[in-house]
Specification:
By secondary structure, the chain is mainly alpha-helical. It has one domain. Helices cover 64% and strands 6% of the residues. It has a two-stranded antiparallel ribbon with strand order 1-2. Helix 1 runs antiparallel to helix 2, helix 1 runs antiparallel to helix 7 and helix 2 crosses helix 4. The longest helix is centred in the N-terminal third of the chain and has 25 residues.
């Protein structure tokens, strides 16, 4: 599979995750969509880090791309730590969905993720992941981070096609 094909599949998966996250009030369905989006975003990011010199520096300099290490923490929590990464949180969120509720799906506090982690967390890049998670994801609507990843990969895909 080419990197361009991998990018196209990832962007399609992220669009599907955004669609579900914007259309459900269900915490279970929302966490499934979030987990899928996290998996695809992190998989493509890891692939690009291996095959594209300079990808990591370019990603970290981008407002949307710099969230990927924090998303990796959330993905690892779901995949390796058996942690539910998001919980329903009070507050209005757009777009409005029916039945109308006054809550949205938001990332759990880092302290709760660490307390819930089953097994041992790999600590290789933990300090940077933790700082980015706390500053950009903790308490934030989950759909916003998946939309950021999608915007980042849209820009990367355009660069891949022009090469």
């Amino acid at each position: 599979m080419t990197t361009s094909d991998f990018s196209a599949m990832t962007r399609q998966a992220l669009r599907a995750s955004v669609e579900v996250l914007n259309s459900t009030n269900d915490a279970v369905g929302g966490n499934v969509a979030l987990g899928s989006g996290l998996f695809w975003a992190c998989s493509l990011d890891e692939h690009l880090r291996r095959v594209s010199p300079g990808h990591e520096a370019m990603r970290d300099a981008d407002d949307d791309g710099r969230l990927l290490p924090a998303l990796r923490l959330a993905r690892n929590a779901v995949m390796h730590g058996a942690v539910v990464a998001a919980v329903p949180t009070e507050g209005i969120a757009w777009p409005l969905r029916f039945p109308l509720t006054w809550q949205h799906l938001a990332y759990r506090p880092l302290s709760e993720i660490n307390e819930s982690w089953v097994g041992t967390r790999h600590m290789g890049d933990a300090e940077r992941q933790d700082a980015l998670y706390v500053s950009h994801l903790e308490g934030a609507r989950v759909v916003e981070s998946i939309e950021s990843a999608l915007r980042w990969f849209e820009r990367v895909h355009c660069q891949l096609k022009s090469q």
